[in-house]
Amino acid sequence: MPKDTGIGASTPRREDVRFLTGKGRYTDDIDVAGQAHVVFLRSDVAHGRIASIDTSAAEGVEGVVRIFTSKDFEGVGGIPCGWQITSRDGEVMREPKHPILAEGKVRHVGDPIAAVVAETRAQARDAAEAIVVEIEDLPAVIDMKAALAEGAPRVHDDLPDNLCYDWGFVEENREAVDRAIAEAAHVTTLDLVNNRLVANPMEPRVAVGDYARHDGSSTLYTTSQNPHVIRLLMGAFVLGIPEHKLRVVAPDVGGGFGTKIFHYAEEAFCTFAARALERPVKWTSSRSEAFMSDAHGRDHVTRIELALDADHNFTAVRTQTLANMGAYLSTFAPSVPTWLHGTLMAGNYRTPLVYVNVKAVFTNTVPVDAYRGAGRPEATFQLERVIDKAARELGVDPVELRRRNFIREFPYQTPVAVEYDTGDYDATMDCLLEMIDRDGFPARRAESEARGKLRGLGINCYIEACGIAPSKLVGQLGARAGLYESATVRVNATGGLVVMTGSHSHGQGHETSFAQVVADMIGINEDQVEIVHGDTANTPMGMGTYGSRSLAVGGSAMVRATEKIIAKARKIAAHLMEAGEDDIELKDGKFTVMGTDKSVAWGDVTLAAYVPHNYPLEDIEPGLEETAFYDPNNFTYPSGAYACEVEVDPETGKVDVLAFAAADDFGNVVNPMIVEGQVHGGIAQGIGQALLENCAYDAEGQLLSASYMDYTMPRAHDFPMFQVDHSCRTPCTHNPLGVKGCGEAGAIGSPPSVVNAVLDALASGGHDVAHIDMPLTSGKVWAAMQGRGDK
Amino acid sequence: MGKVTMTVNGKSRTAEAEGRTLLVEWLREGLRLTGTHVGCDTSQCGACVVHVDGAPVKACTVLAQELDGAEVRTIEGMADADGSLGTIQQAFQDYHGLQCGFCTPGMVMSAASLLEENPKPSEAEVRHYLEGNICRCTGYHNIVKAVMAASGQEVAPVAAE
């Protein structure tokens, strides 16, 4: 029977009520009295030298308060990067300055040149149009291979070329991998592109800077997944504001998907300008502006080689990737193609030897950073595609080839640093094959063929490392941050309590699921638990929400803090009942002396903590408030098997997704409804990547897909109902809830099965197409059927 | 600049509007009805859908001054008279038809128009009707279920637990 409360229950989300009635409080809903508005004038060329900026006409526009250019930011730091990668030769990565407003050169379409602050947004826009900027065009580098060619135009004049780093992992294995590939019975090679995407949370970014004259403190309201990270980066590295004089608030945030992790120039600008002008300054991004200023995702060009022995055991994987960094290093950009990608190249398989080489490249494009999955979709896609290609070349069943190589003993130390704690890949595969009814596929294919359509079934596995991350490990790997999480549990005198968490919810429903956990632990009603997040003024230092870490890391901190609360409350209860502490048990919100009918209610104990008339003051302090910081000792490793069934129209190349099934192992599940919702959303983004979405630049660096007229967002009619299952559970062994992350799995696991399915459909029609790069638009699929594909 | 008066959620409301002021700006900035959202600038996303004289309209595509005297309904006017969630709103909560909540007001307003036009839509009809509303969180799965449920049709339970 489904539970109706606590851990395991599909409790309806409490936050829904405000969102469904128009009472949500998103950043753009915040107006601070006296605020002015800023509009950024952005570069319309990809690369050029700024010859002059004439603001004289613009300054005369009605309502203009002040116009800022880079000369107003002397002594102000650049936007910092939070992760340092070391190249194979021991050199640290190249880290060019990322100024708030362009200094001397513009380096991508959308690079901000000037900022106009005016009384209204419309006036600021009018004035921005009146600024005259002369730019001497420079040749742009867009294609990564061209960017690395000798003599290529340089994005940054102070760097010798456009290479950011050249990373090898595991470098000590390189020669052994080369040897294994040279000696293999069979090697399958695949060249592919992991297409550039734009995260596109429905809420565009917004920043409101405020400055308090009376105490010299600054406040920033911003659309962020991690307000403390923004406070630290902006305060310490950009503006020089100590943390005790800086408050960052991220209220209701309308989706993030990674792109709201990063510290952006607009946040620093609004905070800076509010202080300079001594009045609040607000910026609201338009969607077109978002396309050219939100960090993009993916954009890898890869060659992968899979070596197999005569029995079809995987013996080695070698992969070389060019990873686009864009024009500047965004906050976590260097970590995505390296540690979030290379460490996953073992996949679900016992491949003993793996070597990953990544060259990160500067180009005249918008910076690229983490987008839902971040590195792990890129790893999963190439591995699961090359396995399918190998199965085809060898004439074996792709599922059986995977099963032959599954890891079955845990813990399992991979050759790429990470150690998987638990998993059961056969279980999720079995579950998947039943859900998708693989046995019934031939009949369904025949039915499609009777209608002149080609039907295909694609299957793949995935594993990911999430619950990011052990601080000690990521420190060794170049992170300039710790990745613990925090929680303070404040119990009130009358028994209700507030959890102040360093995690941030921007759609994940923490206010509901976190309350379920704490209420369950104490045995009180969920509505007695309030979850507070998103404001550095009232939450402990936390690292925020990304990398599917909230429940595994933030939830663990909350559990630890609640355990401390219960331990103290037990002492108080023992005193009240004049019993030994060890004899007290907490059940259903009541402390009972075991083996007796003597008990005190939770509320009596909390009251005693704050009205300590009868209280063990010599042993413990009054009050009931505890904080815990939790630093995990490993990642968590969700895994699963996904399947996609498509129909291709041979006349047009149009692909219809008929069915999609996902069998995930997330360990224990707190709120199944929320977990399934996360998977649905991830699958939609994965199918979107595979079939619809593409961020495109032309050769001159013009952004071709800069609005919803050009960038194909998935819509309701693009999908069938999804089949999802999370009943295969191998609980995580190292966090107190036994949970794994579920936020990114859908986006990580789904693209390969879509592409595998389309190629399977084409093969059934006699079209031997080895690969089509995403997105598989009807034009590309049709061209491939005519033998005119890229490959 | 001129004064514009409309009946909004049953009440007569007046606020200033420039010639270029969009209905969505007039609602959000003039009346502080911030439930209606702006998610794009090309009339594609549908986060700003409201009802104007009974019809669903993207509030970013009409000028406020052209609507003087119009009757407008926004998400703030969708709850039942006693303040509890209306049928569609309740179904969205029951079937987890929202995550970040940003597209939700527009989704609810479009769904209300659909069910007015077509009280028992098929799954395909729901998906087709909601083409003008983009959601990035849910994959539409639970939105479709919520709309079907709000129309009184049987749908599968919320989670496979």
Automatic annotation (TrEMBL), chain A:
Enzyme Commission number, as recorded: 1.2.99.2
Gene Ontology MF terms: iron ion binding; oxidoreductase activity
A Pfam cross-reference name: Ald_Xan_dh_C
EC category name: oxidoreductase
Residue intervals of the Aldehyde oxidase/xanthine dehydrogenase a/b hammerhead domain: 21-139
UniProt signal peptide: none
The keyword Oxidoreductase is assigned to this record: yes
Source taxon at top rank: Bacteria
Alphabetical keyword list: Molybdenum, Oxidoreductase
Official protein name in the record: Carbon monoxide dehydrogenase large chain
UniProtKB/TrEMBL annotation, chain B:
Gene3D superfamilies tied to this protein: 3.10.20.30, [2Fe-2S]-binding domain
UniProt-listed Pfam families: Fer2, Fer2_2
EC category name: oxidoreductase
Gene behind this protein: coxS
Protein name as catalogued: Carbon monoxide dehydrogenase small chain
A GO MF term: oxidoreductase activity
UniProt keyword Iron-sulfur, yes or no: yes
All residue ranges annotated as the 2Fe-2S ferredoxin-type domain in the record: 2-78
Highest taxon in the source lineage: Bacteria
E.C. number(s) listed in UniProt: 1.2.99.2
Keywords in alphabetical order: 2Fe-2S, Iron, Iron-sulfur, Metal-binding, Oxidoreductase
Organism: Jannaschia rubra
